[in-house]
């Protein structure tokens, strides 16, 4: 039996401000740091020896993982992959979710946030929030940097990376991934075989480790959120 632990980063400063963040490289809030610390303590209680660590390129996921590793006293080098980045929210990036709900309607916002294959309008390449204008992504080939994404787009890059780089380790070893609400939603769609309707209802809490037990045939045997008070449904076997 192997274990896969999925952790959505702790609350970011833009989560706190109710902004669409996407690929903007925003760091953790104070609450987010505390959530990451609690995640580390919850994982430590399980006494699982973790062999591989992965993070997106983004500060909030990277710093969450660093805090967890400090608590685990595990200083193994972790792999950072742009494929695990948050979904790109296109022209919604940097806008306030509540204000936009009032402006274009709650139903439209829900469609843009939760639907499977609807993309927001593209973000202008001249916008300072476009990934082309953010130092974090300067080394990425321009052709792979999106202007906007649907959850389906996010799924395709996340799952391709998971199959190529992570899945093989789960035959015999344990893995922790620190990523984002939508990149983890995408991975859960694949792992739990969720349909397009189920995935619209799935929400991932910040800083709450999802522990998934996997057999030697890569079949899920059990899953549980370690912070029971903030557990979400749909992933309980």
Question: What's the quick description here?
Answer:
The chain has helices spanning 13-16, 30-46, 59-72, 97-104, 106-114, 151-166, 181-191, 196-201; strands at 2-8, 52-55, 79-80, 175-179, 210-214, 220-225. It is an alpha/beta fold.
Structure explained in plain terms:
The protein has helices at residues 13-16, 30-46, 59-72, 97-104, 106-114, 151-166, 181-191, 196-201; strands spanning 2-8, 52-55, 79-80, 175-179, 210-214, 220-225. By secondary structure, it is of the alpha/beta class. Strands 3-2-4-1-5-6 form a six-stranded mixed beta sheet. Helix 3 links the parallel strand 2 and strand 3 (79-80). The radius of gyration is 17 Å and the shape is globular.
Keywords, separated by commas or semicolons:
6 strands; single chain; alpha/beta; 237 residues
Shape call: globular
| Cα Rg | 17 Å
According to DSSP, the number of beta strands is 6
Query: In order across it, which strands form the biggest sheet?
Result: 3-2-4-1-5-6
Ends: how far apart? 16 Å
What percentage of amino acids are in beta strands? 5-15%
Model regions low in confidence, pLDDT < 50 over at least 5 residues: none
Element string (H = helix, E = strand): EHHEHEHHHEHHEE
Mean model confidence by pLDDT = 94
Q: Portion of residues in helices?
A: 25-40%
| Class from helix and strand fractions | alpha/beta
Number of helical runs? 8
Largest sheet, in brief, is: 6 strands, mixed
């Amino acid at each position: 039996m192997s274990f896969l632990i999925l952790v959505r980063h702790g609350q970011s400063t833009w989560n706190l401000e109710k902004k669409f963040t996407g690929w903007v490289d925003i760091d953790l809030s104070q609450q987010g740091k505390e959530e990451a610390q609690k995640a580390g303590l919850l994982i430590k209680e399980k006494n699982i020896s973790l062999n591989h660590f992965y993070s997106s390129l983004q500060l909030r996921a990277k710093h969450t993982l660093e805090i967890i590793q400090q608590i685990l006293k595990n200083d193994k080098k972790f792999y950072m992959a742009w494929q695990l980045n948050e979904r790109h929210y296109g022209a919604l990036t940097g806008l306030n979710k509540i204000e936009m709900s009032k402006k274009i309607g709650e139903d439209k916002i829900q469609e843009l946030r939760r639907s499977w294959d609807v993309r927001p309008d593209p973000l202008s390449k001249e916008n300072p929030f476009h990934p082309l204008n953010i130092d974090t992504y300067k080394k990425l080939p321009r052709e792979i940097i999106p202007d906007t994404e649907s959850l389906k787009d996010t799924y395709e890059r996340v799952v391709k990376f998971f199959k190529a780089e992570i899945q093989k380790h789960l035959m015999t070893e344990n893995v922790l991934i620190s990523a984002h609400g939508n990149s983890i939603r995408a991975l859960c769609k694949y792992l739990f075989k969720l349909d397009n309707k189920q995935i619209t209802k799935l929400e991932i809490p910040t800083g709450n480790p999802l522990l998934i037990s996997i057999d030697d045939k890569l079949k899920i045997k059990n899953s549980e959120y370690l912070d029971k008070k903030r557990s979400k449904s749909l992933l309980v076997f």
